[in-house]
Amino acid sequence: MAERVIPEPQRRRRRPTKQGTVLSEQVIVDTALRLVGLHGAEALTVRRLGAALGADPSAVYRYFRNTDDLLLALTDELVGHAQRGWRPTGDWRADLRDIGLRIHAAYQAHPQAAMLAAHRTTGRDHETRAVEAILGVLRTAGFPDPEAVRIYHALVDQGLAFAALDAAAAAMPAPARAADRDVWRARYAHLDPQTHPNIAATAPLLAADMRRSGYPFALDLLLEAIAARLPDRGAEQEHPQG
Residue 52 — left, alpha, or beta (φ > 0 → left; ψ -120 to 50 → alpha)? Predict the structure, then answer.
């Protein structure tokens, strides 16, 4: 989609489409998310969107400059899905864990879109609210600003990296996904203990554990490391309350 900006007063279309839908940015984003989920990245075109919306493809230009602008809106929508219903509890560690798991779950619900979106920075409303919320949790917990920013960076990048990795696996055809999982049982479980003693000793555990995402455990490990950097933690341990 080439750059083509429609002047703001002309952007809103109030006339229903052939399907009786009044177009809006949200309608287009929801339709794009559905199309990408069904057909992958190749579905993110003006022609296919227009057909799905029952509108002239050029109508999309009233809301988005190009497909990258639409992709950023789609990315921000996933971030918004992760935030629905979230409220801080005052327990910084529980709050960060909840945020991380929500992000991961939102991206796993839309694996095709996640592969397109996990590495993007939108600057849009949902993303800015998420950044504000995470930094707020960290600063309220007592982390100095430079430390809060570094922790924010590590926490979000870890979550998005796992989201992209797990989304790529979820988006694979079912036979390929099953074959990948079966490697741990069919190949690793039969390696010679003389040449691969560590794998042989842990093969059943590997076969079971590799069937699920490593993200929850990795998140807990990161939160343990973050807790160790909390100012005055040492003093609290030397002089416990009660």
Answer: alpha
